[in-house]
């Protein structure tokens, strides 16, 4: 099984690589330190599975997961997170992840999660989350309401990380005028006045870290 691991902490990536490479049926074929790099490496190496940290610079793991699943539908995604809040679980599933592992449980759960997801099963690290997901999947609603589109979330994350409109346009391959339009829409949709309020919102939503 060919695996890509993406986490913005080199030590975490190193630990996961050691764990995975010890398995006779698994091999780490690529590593990435942020979401943009993860997407690029996935396109280049076409792994069977991506282990993605949810919170990374430039593009979150969930934003990258959405892009990877759109371009490589055969590639499975396993989300890795320090958050056990149900909102993060819903967001991961909506982005196309088939599993969700808490970082504090990596040593015990990562290999089982990789094997489960590669078989086509869902994997969550505790019974409560399984219950939440079962209820969500059997319900016609799609979990907690998200006011922003995936593209707006990508733009918001980069605004919060102090990227200029020009830098955002280059990172997301958009026209600068399109970025300006997204910025205005974000302020209007969220009822906010300036970048400072957008940054606070992005931190609360887990799109970036304080």
Helix content: 40-55%
| Strand content range | 5-15%
What Rg, in angstroms, do the CA atoms define?
17 Å
State the order of secondary-structure elements, H for helix, E for strand. Answer: EHEHEHEHEHEHHHHH
Strand order of the largest sheet: 2-1-3-4-5-6
Shape: globular
Q: What's the total helix number?
A: 10
Low-confidence spans: none
Mind explaining what this structure looks like?
With 210 residues, this protein is α/β, with parallel strands linked by helices. It is built from 10 helices and 6 strands. It has helices spanning 10-21, 35-45, 61-71, 86-94, 106-118, 127-138, 150-160, 165-172, 176-190, 195-204, and strands at 2-6, 27-32, 49-53, 76-81, 99-102, 123-124. Helix 5 (106-118) links the parallel strand 5 and strand 6. Helix 2 runs parallel beside helix 3 (61-71) and helix 7 packs across helix 10 (195-204). The relative contact order is 0.11. The mean pLDDT is 84. Keywords: DNA-binding, Phosphoprotein, Transcription, Transcription regulation. It comes from Solirubrobacter deserti. The modification 4-aspartylphosphate is found at residue 53. Residues 141-206 form the HTH luxR-type domain.
Quick take:
The chain is α/β, with parallel strands linked by helices and 210 residues long. Helices cover 53% and strands 13% of the residues. The protein has a 6-stranded parallel sheet with strand order 2-1-3-4-5-6, with helices on both faces.
